[in-house]
Structures are given as structure tokens and as C-alpha cells.
């Protein structure tokens, strides 16, 4: 019996996930390959490992009540100077992400917790690196865009090596993707 560090997120699908991960590494972020490209729903949270079955049951319930929704990323933002982070903005699907993360952290569930900052869905592309590299990430990804239908989320565990590994996926209960998600052109736009 011990503790584990878990997180819940929406994976950025391929080829977008790998592309952003490569770019993150190229900006000098040493953590890039240990963190799958994602939108956080539950930040790193330490729990007793005996709680994992209860967490999985809770996430199953949250996902069963969920429905697919369109996700769209575009442009960059930053949390500097408060936090040394540059990110790609979630411009569609953010409200859905916000509702999901509230359900996941609900006081009646096994991972109830407060957040140190207000929830802001995003995809980190640089964290804790030199300011010049942060500026470069912000500028070079200003024209980046990607979209896809979000059909669920996943539970991850951080290993002793600092690498995050997927434990299980949780597909939404509804199988119908909203019409706007089907009409959004799939692919990415990247301009330098």
C-alpha cells in the first residue's frame, strides 16, 4: 500500500499530439516526451493507491453522462508572469472541459480537491524554460490550429521516472458527435 500520482486529461489526437510534443521538445522543454500532449481535466493529484478502483468507477460514471463535443485549438497564450507556461488556446470545447473537470473533482467523489488557480483549459507547449525560448514558442505557434471531435478522456499515472502513462480510457456514453464537430475540417494549420 502506498500513494500514486494521477491525472485526468483529454489527449490531443495524432498527428497533432506528436507534432506539438516535438515542438515542445524543440523549444528546450526537457519534460516534453514524458507528458503526452493533452488538455488537463484533473491536475496531478496524489492519492492512496487503494483508491484507484473508486477513481475508475467515478470516472466511468462521469464519462457515461458525457457526450462528444467539438474541440478546436488555435493560437497561443501564456500564464506569465504568474506561471512560466506558454500554451495553445482551446477556442472551442472549453466550456465542455470546464463542466467535465468540475464533475471529476466533485465533492462527493474520490478526487475532490480545490485548484490553486481558476480552471483554464489549454495545451501546454512550454513550461519552466528560458524566457527567450518561451517567447519563441509563443510567437512560432501563434498560427497553430487543430480540431477534432472529443469522444472521451483518460486516466494517467506518473511513474517514478516522471513519465505519465495512460491507465485507462473513458469514452463518453453518447455516441453521437454534434453536427458542428462533423462539419469542422479535420487537420491542422501551422504557419510560421
TrEMBL record:
Top-level division of the source organism's lineage: Bacteria
Signal peptide residue numbers: none
InterPro entries: 2H_phosphoesterase_YjcG-like (IPR050580), Cyclic_Pdiesterase (IPR009097)
Keywords: Ligase
Molecular function (Gene Ontology), one example: ligase activity
Stated name of the protein: 2'-5' RNA ligase family protein
Originating organism: Streptomyces thermocoprophilus
Lineage: Bacteria, Bacillati, Actinomycetota, Actinomycetes, Kitasatosporales
Amino acid at each position: 500500500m502506498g500513494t500514486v500520482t494521477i491525472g485526468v486529461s483529454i489527449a490531443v489526437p495524432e498527428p497533432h499530439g506528436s507534432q506539438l510534443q516535438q515542438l515542445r521538445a524543440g523549444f528546450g522543454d526537457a519534460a516534453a516526451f514524458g507528458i503526452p500532449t493533452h488538455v488537463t481535466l484533473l491536475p496531478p493529484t496524489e492519492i492512496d493507491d487503494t483508491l484507484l478502483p473508486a477513481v475508475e468507477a467515478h470516472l466511468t460514471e462521469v464519462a457515461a453522462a458525457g457526450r462528444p463535443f467539438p474541440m478546436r485549438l488555435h493560437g497561443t497564450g501564456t500564464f506569465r508572469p504568474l506561471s512560466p507556461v506558454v500554451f495553445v488556446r482551446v477556442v472551442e470545447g472549453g466550456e465542455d472541459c470546464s463542466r467535465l473537470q468540475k464533475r471529476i473533482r466533485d465533492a462527493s467523489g474520490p478526487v475532490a480537491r480545490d485548484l490553486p488557480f481558476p480552471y483554464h483549459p489549454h495545451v501546454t507547449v512550454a513550461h519552466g524554460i528560458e524566457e527567450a525560448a518561451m517567447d519563441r514558442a509563443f510567437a512560432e505557434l501563434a498560427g497553430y490550429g487543430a480540431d477534432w471531435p472529443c469522444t472521451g478522456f483518460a486516466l494517467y499515472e506518473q511513474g517514478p521516472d516522471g513519465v505519465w502513462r495512460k491507465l485507462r480510457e473513458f469514452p463518453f456514453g453518447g455516441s453521437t458527435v454534434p453536427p458542428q464537430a462533423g462539419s469542422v475540417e479535420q487537420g491542422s494549420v501551422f504557419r510560421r
